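ok posting inputs for the phosphoenolpyruvate job
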Amino acid sequence: MSRKTIIAGNWKMNKTAGEARELARELSAAVDKLSQKDLPQIVLCPTFTSLPAVTTTLTGNKKLAVGAQNMDYRDNGAFTGEISAPMLLDLGVQYILIGHSERRQFFGETDLTVNQKLKAALKHKLVPIVCVGESLDEREGNLTDKVVAKQVAGALQDIAEQELESLIIAYEPVWAIGTGKSCDSEEANRVCGLIRTTINEYYKTSGKPGDKVPVLYGGSVTPANCEEQLAKPNIDGSLVGGASLKAPDFVAIIEAGAKRVARTPQVV
Ligand code: PEP
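and the output
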């Protein structure tokens, strides 16, 4: 049995609620026309303000789930401007992006806050998609493996192996995000494999939990390059930014995901 295929769209700070509803409708109608047998799990991550519009539009749709782009690790309290896991669950949100590089770069996210948010997601049964990846300086300084392994181990601090069942990791090299310069698929495959090995080494058990964790690639994924990426054994799906905002492009990436599902029996 191979790992689940997941195609997730990060809409970042784009679209009003009305525009988000329209895109969700368009995607839902297009996905309905595809062969349902081999569909990957699809996750749409709109802004907080569009979550109700998108969850309502997709109510009852098992293949298109909704994720948020960030959350606070606390449940409630005097934290002005923050949003918690119970609030997201209340809206029908099922997935949560944690530690996206834009959060790390611009909003002070650290390995510690990623770990705190991961614990909160697991506690509340939101499916976490933890993002890791090196900057251009780090890649040019041959630090990719060290940085990625540190981010993965940092996220997993004090998390029991049995809690990892729903964990998803996304390898997103910072230099590839929004630049049009996607990581070479062979190299992306190598780093996704390293992520899995890091998880196995962290737990040091015969269970090899890393082998069960889906690892996605993200960074300038397009209809033109996704098929090659998704053909690699260590890449279980795509985390898509820019191309997820255009229905035809995102549907083409979903179709590439469906080809992966058809090739490999999926864990349900
Ligand atoms: C992202 O935001 O996670 C991302 C990968 O963006 P893009 O596809 O635009 O590079």
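notes: The mean pLDDT is 96. Residues 10, 12, 172, 177-178, 218-221, 239-243 surround phosphoenolpyruvate (CB under 6 Å).
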